[in-house]
Design a protein that fits this description.
By secondary structure, the chain is of the alpha/beta class. Helices cover 48% and strands 9% of the residues. The N and C termini lie far apart (99 Å).
C-alpha cells in the first residue's frame, strides 16, 4: 500500500507559478519584450480567444492571453527558449504548442483579411494615391512591391527548391506596402529558388488587375526591373534616354524605396524574420503571415518600432541584386509603350 501511494505521488504533476506580465510590467516594458502594449495584447487576444480557449481548466491549461504573450515573445526574438527565460512558467513543450496554436489562429483567412487588404473602392484607391504623391510626385500609385527572403532550416522534402540565388534556404515572400508602411498584400508560400516575377505572375493580386477588379490604367504598382512592365506595374527605364525618363526614374526610385524600408521595419519589429526560422516551411509561412498581420495592427494602433531613432534607410539589411528588365512575350510591348506615354505625360526634366 505504501509503495502504491509513493508511486501516485511521483506521478502528480507540479506546475511552476506563471508570471502575470500584463499586470506586472509597464507598457514600455511590454513593448520592448512583446512589441505590443497591454491594450494591444488584449486586442490581439480577443481576435483569437475562441480558437485558443481551452475547454477545461485541467492540467493548469494556458489562458489565451498567455498563449498570445508566448507567441509575441517568440516573434520578437526568434528564440523559443527566450519565452522560458522570461520566467513565464510553462514548460518547453507547452511553449511550443502555444506558439503552434496561436500562429494557426492568427493566420486564419477571416482574421488576415481584417487587417491585410488591398484597396478596391474608388475612395480607398484615391487616398493611397494621394499619399504616394506626397513622396515624390509620382501619380496613380497605390502600392510598392518587392520580395524578401526569410531564412529557414534545410527542409527534409524538396530541399533543393528552397536554395535561393544567394545559396541559403529560404521562403521568398512578396510584399506590397502603401506610403505609410502598411502591408496591403503578402504572399508567403514560395520556396527560395522561385523568381520574384513568377510569384507575381501566379498571385491573386495580379489576377485582380487583369480581371479589372482594380482599374489597370489609372491604378499602378511600382516594382523594380525584376518585374515585367505592365500598365498596372510600372518599372524603371533600364537605360533612360531622355530627361523625362531620367526624371521618371528618380521619382520611381524614391517612391519604391518605401517597400525596402517597409521590409526593414517588419524585420526590425519581429526579429524572428532576421535570423533562421527553425521550423518547417509550412509553419514558417505562418510565422511570416502572423508578423505581417501584427505589423499592421501595430500601425493601426500607432505603436512605434523599437529603437525608433535608428535611420529607416538602414532598416532593410538585405542587399538586393540588380535585375535585368524582365519582359514576357504576352503584353510586353503594351506595357513598355504605356510606360513611355505615362512618362511623357507626367514627367519632365528638372529646370
Amino acid at each position: 500500500m505504501a509503495e502504491r501511494q509513493q508511486a501516485r505521488q511521483r506521478l502528480v504533476k507540479t506546475f511552476q507559478e506563471r508570471r502575470d506580465v500584463l499586470n506586472t510590467l509597464s507598457d514600455a516594458e511590454l513593448l520592448k519584450r512583446y512589441r505590443l502594449d497591454r491594450a494591444g495584447v488584449l486586442f490581439v487576444t480577443d481576435l483569437v480567444r475562441g480558437a485558443l480557449q481551452s475547454p477545461t481548466s485541467r492540467s493548469f491549461a494556458l489562458t489565451p492571453e498567455m498563449k498570445v504573450i508566448i507567441t509575441l515573445r517568440y516573434l520578437a526574438t526568434g528564440k523559443m527558449q527566450m519565452c522560458n527565460s522570461d520566467d513565464l512558467g510553462p514548460s518547453q513543450s507547452s511553449v511550443s504548442k502555444a506558439i503552434t496554436d496561436t500562429l494557426k489562429a492568427l493566420t486564419q483567412p477571416a482574421i488576415l483579411v481584417q487587417f491585410i487588404r488591398f484597396p478596391r473602392t474608388v475612395p480607398e484607391i484615391r487616398e493611397k494615391q494621394q499619399e504616394f504623391v506626397q513622396v515624390a510626385n509620382f501619380p496613380g500609385i497605390v502600392g510598392v512591391i518587392d520580395c524578401t527572403h526569410v531564412r529557414i532550416l534545410a527542409p527534409r522534402e524538396y530541399e533543393a527548391d528552397y536554395v535561393n540565388r544567394k545559396n541559403f534556404h529560404s521562403i521568398n515572400t512578396q510584399l506590397v506596402f502603401d506610403a505609410k508602411y502598411n502591408i496591403l498584400n503578402v504572399v508567403a508560400n514560395w520556396p527560395g529558388s522561385t523568381h520574384d516575377a513568377r510569384i507575381w505572375r501566379e498571385s491573386g493580386l495580379k489576377r485582380m488587375f487583369e480581371d479589372h477588379h482594380i482599374p489597370p490604367d489609372s491604378c499602378h504598382l511600382l516594382g523594380d526591373s525584376g518585374y515585367p512592365c505592365r500598365r498596372y506595374l510600372l518599372t524603371p527605364f533600364p537605360r533612360p534616354q531622355t530627361d523625362s525618363q531620367a526624371a521618371y526614374n528618380r521619382a520611381h526610385k524614391k517612391t519604391r524605396s518605401i517597400v525596402e524600408r517597409g521590409i526593414g521595419q517588419l524585420k526590425r519589429r519581429f526579429h524572428v524574420l532576421h535570423g533562421e526560422v527553425r521550423l518547417n516551411p509550412e509553419k514558417t509561412c505562418q510565422v511570416i503571415l502572423a508578423c505581417a498581420l501584427l505589423h499592421n495592427i501595430c500601425k493601426k494602433r500607432n505603436i512605434q518600432l523599437p529603437d525608433e531613432n535608428v535611420a529607416d534607410a538602414d532598416d532593410n539589411m538585405e542587399v538586393e541584386d540588380e535585375h535585368q528588365e524582365v519582359q514576357l512575350p504576352q503584353d510586353a510591348a503594351d506595357g513598355t509603350r504605356f510606360r513611355e506615354v505615362f512618362c511623357n505625360h507626367h514627367f519632365h526634366a528638372e529646370p
